[in-house]
Amino acid sequence: MQLKNRVALVFGGARGMGRAIALRFAAEGCSSAIADVLDKEGEKTAADIKKAGKDAVYFHCDVTSSAGVKETVAKTIAKFKKLDIMVYCAGIGKPPKLINDISEQEYDSVVAVNMKGIFLCFQAIAPHMKANNYGKIVVISSLAGISPSPVAIHYAAAKAGALHVTSCFALEMAKYNVTVNSILPGMIRTDMTRDFAPPSIKDLDAFMGELAKGIPLKREGTVDDIAAAALFFASDESSYITADRLCVGGGMPNRGTP
Ligand SMILES: NC(=O)c1ccc[n+]([C@@H]2O[C@H](COP(=O)([O-])OP(=O)(O)OC[C@H]3O[C@@H](n4cnc5c(N)ncnc54)[C@H](O)[C@@H]3O)[C@@H](O)[C@H]2O)c1
């Protein structure tokens, strides 16, 4: 049990990677608060954690609302009397678009959920983790954050920003025994996969199969691949690693030989 008696708050934990992370944490002894805007899915994830034998609660929370995030952190601490781990998994993806096809509103919304929300969650949680002199924070960014794309300028920029927001915060928190790290997933099959695909794609499996041929490990990633990496950063196995990042992309990006 790598997370025995720990408590986690998973933003964006209703489905996809966030849900898989919360369930993997439960199997390792961790109770969780799930925060999301998808209430039905969030309640189900909380119920499934309880079925796995750990305590859980779902809170409706929009990560772009400073007040909502603060209230969610406060309610989590009120329920569990502590908070050891925070995971930021909230995100939105968009189909490929060139710059003049992206509205200002779309740009703002992508940056708000994929980057600004991280800052708001850090602000809300910092006082508690500083006072406790303990904390493990894991942020899901993306390989898009280190690989410029001509068809996702807002998403890639937000994910790059997410990496830096996370590393800057890690340096502030280091002296409080709080580690803060990023995971950069590659191509992981979730509900978001449909959002990333061009609308003209009718056969998503065939499309993904073709893309997977270009991945060194020759397969798409799964949410369990991400949960395993998140467990490492949430556990004390990673206690000497902070302000760092882990690519989980089956060999992508291919950095070549040194
Ligand atoms: N799927 C991929 O291939 C892939 C690759 C790289 C990075 N990512 C990133 O991984 C993270 C998880 O994505 P996923 O693939 O599991 O997709 P997903 O859509 O299944 O999960 C995203 C979650 O974020 C929640 N969310 C969205 N807006 C929110 C808001 N304003 N407030 C609170 N919650 C909100 C959604 O409701 C959902 O539960 C995202 O940050 C995504 O950008 C995904």
Descriptive account of the structure:
The protein is an alpha/beta fold and 258 residues long. It has one domain (7-191, 222-248): 3-Layer(aba) Sandwich (Rossmann fold), CATH 3.40.50. It has helices spanning 16-27, 39-51, 66-80, 104-132, 153-173, 192-196, 204-212, 223-234, and strands at 7-11, 31-36, 56-60, 85-88, 135-140, 178-185, 245-248. A 7-stranded parallel sheet has the order 3-2-1-4-5-6-7, with helices on both faces. Helix 4 links the parallel strand 4 and strand 5 (135-140). Helix 1 runs parallel beside helix 2 (39-51). It is globular and about 50 Å long. The structure holds nicotinamide-adenine-dinucleotide (NAD). Nicotinamide-adenine-dinucleotide (NAD) binds next to helix 1, helix 4 and helix 6. Nicotinamide-adenine-dinucleotide is lined by residues 12, 14-18, 36-38, 61-64, 89-93, 113-114, 140, 142, 185, 187-188, 190-193.
